[in-house]
Specification:
By secondary structure, the protein is of the alpha/beta class. It contains 23 helices and 31 strands.
Length: about 650
C-alpha cells in the first residue's frame, strides 16, 4: 500500500525496541527464531506498524534494537517479507548489542555503550508492538513547536532552557468495539498526574492536539500505585511541594503509556549518568517517573545528575561554601539498585523533612476550590495562602517549607529541568485507535478490528473522497486466494492472506486467515467465526457421507492428504462433535486462535480456545518441510517485547 509520508527529518532518529515478548504465547516458538516483532497482526508483521508510523512522520534514520540471538531472523524478514520490503525509505539498521538479554529493561538497553554510540541527536523511542491510527507527525509537530519556557507551569531560573520531552498516553476504556463480548480484553494501566500548560494567545484549531497536551508531574504503573495505597491504608501521600508549585493537579488511572517517547539529545546522557545507569531499568517507570518528580523537586534533580547533564552547577552556595552533597548510588537505591517510586520516597525522607506529605483524601480535590499558588521567590516569612480543608496540616512543616524555599531560589543555582509533556488522548470512540499489542487477547482483538477496516481498493472504486485508514489493507481477500464452490467469506469483517485455499461449503466471517492456509480442503463443511488462523494452518472438514468421499477432489488435490493421520497427532483442545446419521458433521470454530502449522482435525468444535501442538518443535518440523524459507519470507514470528515494556 502506498504511503503518504512527510519530508525526511534529518535531525531526528528513531529507535524501535524489539524484544522476546514473554506475555505472548499464542503462537509459541523460540524467540531467537521468531522474535515478537515478526508476529503477525492482521496478516502483517508486527514491526510493519511502528515502521510505517516512523515513515509517516518523515523519519528515515531508524534503528531496530534486538537481542543478538534474534538478529538473523529479523534480518531475513527485512530482506524477504513483502510487507516490510514495500515500505518507503532506506532499510532500517539492525543493532544487536552484545550485553542485551531477553530480560533486559528498556532503560538498561539505552544505557548500553553500543546504543549510546548510535544516538547522535534528538530521538524517538517506540515499541515494536505499537498499532496507531493517529498520525505521528501531529504529535511530532506539537513537540517541535512547544517552547519549554512558555509551557512549563513551574518557575525556572533565568539560564538557558533546553527542550523537554513528550510521551503518549491512550485511554483503555471507551473502545469496547475492538473486542468481542465473549473475549474481554483488559489493558494494563498507568497512574498519571498532570498539570495544564498555558494555551497560546490564538486558540488552536479544532483538529490540533494542543488542547490535550499537559505536563507530567507524577507517573507510575498501576501495580506500584496499588502497593503504595496498601502501605498507606488506602491513602496516596502527596508532597506539599507539589501542591505549592501546582495548584491544579489532575490524576488519571484509566490510561496507558504507549511507550512512544520524543526525547531531546540530553536524555541520552541522563539515562547513562553514573547516578542512574545502575538504577534505571524501565523507561516508563524509572526514567519518566524520576524526570517528572525532578521538575518540582530541585534537590532531587541534583541527586539524579540533571545538574551535570543540563550544564548547571551542583548546588553551589553564594558564600563559596562547600557544594551540597548529592547522594550517590548507595544513597539513592541502596543495594538493590532500582530507582522505583518507593525508592524515591526513601530519597525524599533522607532530605530531612523538606516538606510534609499531604493526605489528598482530606483535601478532596473534587470539592476544593483552586488554591493560591505559593511563589518560590516570595520573601515573606508568613504564609498567607491556605488550601481549603487542609486545617489539619501542622504549622511547623509550613515553616520548614518556607525556610527551604528561600535557599533554593537564592542560595543554590539548580538548573532548570525541562518539562516532561504528554499527549493524553481523550476517551472518544471516534478518535484514532492507539494500542500496544503485548498480550494474546489484544493480538486477536486488534487483528479483528483491523479486519473490519474497508479495503483501500474498494474505497477508490466507490468514489468516496474521504481519506482511507492508514492501516487498511489493499484487498480484504488477496487475489491469489482460492475459494471453492458453495463457500462464503465475509469481506466486510474478514481478511484472507495470499495463497490461501478454501474448500467447498466453508463459511468464514469476522476472521483473519494467515498466508498459505488450507481451510476445508481435506473434506468440507468448515465454519469459522471470530477466529485468528496462523500461517500454513490446516483445518479439515467432514464430508456428509462416505459415499461422497469421491467428491472430495479437493482432498485429492492436496498431495499430502494421506498424511492426515500423522497430522492428527497435534490434536486440538476442542471437542469432536458426534453427528447422527441425518446430521452433517462440520468443523466449527468460534473465538479461537489456531497456531501456525497446526492441523485441526475434522469434526472439531471449539469455542474460545487456543489450538496449538503440545510438542511444538516436532509439529513445526513435521509441517515445515520445504517451507522453511517461506516462513521467514512471511515475516510472521511469535513472541516479543522487552520485559517491562
Amino acid at each position: 500500500m502506498p504511503h503518504a509520508t512527510h519530508p525526511p527529518l534529518p535531525s531526528l532518529q528513531a529507535l524501535i525496541l524489539c524484544g522476546p515478548g514473554l506475555s505472548l504465547n499464542t503462537f509459541t516458538s523460540s524467540p531467537s527464531q521468531s522474535p515478537k516483532c515478526l508476529l503477525p497482526i492482521a496478516n502483517r508483521p508486527m514491526l510493519w506498524y511502528p515502521l510505517s508510523y516512523c515513515h509517516n512522520m518523515g523519519i528515515s534514520d531508524i534503528t531496530l534494537i534486538i537481542p543478538p540471538d534474534a538478529k538473523e531472523a529479523l534480518e531475513k524478514a527485512l530482506a524477504t517479507n513483502p510487507a516490510l520490503t514495500s515500505l518507503p525509505g532506506p532499510k532500517p539498521e539492525v543493532l544487536a548489542p552484545e550485553g542485551l538479554e531477553q530480560t533486559s529493561g528498556t532503560a538498561e538497553l539505552l544505557s548500553l555503550p553500543e546504543v549510546q554510540e548510535v544516538v547522535t541527536r534528538d530521538f524517538v523511542v517506540l515499541p515494536c508492538d505499537l498499532v496507531s491510527e493517529l498520525d505521528g507527525s501531529k504529535v511530532l509537530q506539537q513537540w517541535l513547536t512547544l517552547d519549554p519556557s512558555s509551557t512549563s507551569s513551574s518557575s525556572s531560573s533565568k539560564q538557558g532552557k533546553k527542550r523537554g520531552g513528550m510521551a503518549l498516553y491512550y485511554p483503555t476504556h471507551g473502545r469496547e468495539g475492538i473486542s468481542s463480548e465473549s473475549k474481554k480484553v483488559v489493558d494494563e494501566t498507568d497512574f498519571l498526574a498532570t498539570v495544564p500548560i498555558p494555551l497560546p494567545a490564538v486558540p488552536p484549531p479544532a483538529v490540533s492536539l494542543r488542547s490535550n497536551i499537559e505536563e507530567v508531574v507524577l507517573t507510575m504503573p498501576t501495580d506500584t500505585l496499588n502497593d503504595t495505597l496498601e502501605e498507606n491504608n488506602g491513602s496516596l501521600p502527596i508532597r506539599q511541594r507539589l501542591l505549592n508549585k501546582h495548584s491544579n493537579v489532575k490524576m488519571r488511572t484509566k490510561y496507558r503509556d504507549a511507550h512512544v517517547y520524543f526525547f531531546p539529545y540530553w536524555v541520552k546522557s541522563f539515562i547513562a549518568h553514573p547516578s542512574n545507569s545502575e538504577k534505571f531499568e524501565s523507561l516508563s517507570e524509572d526514567v519518566l517517573g524520576a524526570w517528572a518528580k525532578a521538575g518540582w523537586r530541585p534537590s532531587l534533580a541534583g541527586k539524579l545528575g540533571l545538574d551535570d547533564v543540563l550544564g548547571g552547577k551542583r548546588g553551589v552556595e553564594e558564600d563559596g561554601g562547600e557544594t551540597e552533597r548529592m547522594g550517590g548510588a548507595e544513597d539513592d537505591a541502596g543495594e538493590e539498585g532500582c530507582m522505583t517510586p518507593a525508592r524515591f520516597s526513601e530519597l525524599e525522607q533522607q532530605e530531612g523533612g523538606e516538606d510534609e506529605e499531604v493526605d489528598v483524601m482530606a483535601l478532596s480535590s473534587t470539592k476544593v476550590s483552586v488554591p493560591v499558588r505559593v511563589k518560590e521567590e516570595r520573601e515573606e516569612k508568613d504564609f498567607a495562602s491556605r488550601v481549603q480543608g487542609a486545617s489539619t496540616i501542622d504549622a511547623k512543616p509550613k515553616t520548614k517549607a518556607l525556610s527551604d524555599s528561600k535557599p533554593e531560589t537564592k542560595s543554590k543555582a539548580h538548573v532548570h529541568v525541562p518539562p516532561l509533556l504528554a499527549y493524553i488522548q481523550p476517551s472518544l470512540p471516534s478518535l484514532p485507535l492507539i494500542r500496544r499489542v503485548d498480550t494474546a487477547p489484544q493480538l486477536a482483538s486488534i487483528s479483528l478490528y483491523l479486519a473490519r477496516l474497508p479495503a483501500t481498493s474498494s474505497a477508490s472504486t466507490d468514489g468516496n473522497a474521504g481519506p482511507h485508514n492508514p492501516l487498511a489493507h489493499e484487498h480484504k481477500v488477496h487475489p491469489t486466494a482460492t475459494i471453492g464452490p458453495q463457500s462464503r467469506v465475509s469481506e466486510a469483517d474478514s481478511l484472507v492472506a495470499e495463497n490461501v485455499t478454501i474448500g467447498s461449503r466453508t463459511n468464514i466471517k469476522e476472521s483473519v486467515i494467515g498466508a498459505n492456509c488450507e481451510i476445508g480442503v481435506v473434506g468440507d463443511g468448515v465454519t469459522l467465526t471470530n477466529c485468528i488462523v496462523g500461517k500454513r494452518a490446516r483445518i479439515a472438514g467432514m464430508s456428509p457421507a462416505p459415499a461422497d468421499g469421491g467428491k472430495a477432489g479437493d482432498g485429492g488435490k492436496v498431495g499430502d492428504g494421506g498424511g492426515g493421520g500423522g497430522e492428527g497427532e497435534a490434536k486440538g483442545k476442542g471437542k469432536k462433535k458426534k453427528g447422527g446419521e441425518e446430521e452433517e458433521e462440520r468443523t466449527k470454530l468460534t473465538d479461537c486462535e489456531v497456531a501456525p502449522f497446526f492441523v485441526v482435525e475434522a469434526g472439531t468444535e471449539s469455542k474460545g480456545e487456543t489450538l496449538k501442538g503440545f510438542d511444538e518443535e516436532g509439529s513445526l518440523e513435521g509441517e515445515d518441510g520445504e517451507g522453511g524459507l517461506e516462513d521467514e519470507e512471511d515475516g510472521m514470528g511469535e513472541e516479543g517485547g522487552f520485559e517491562e515494556e
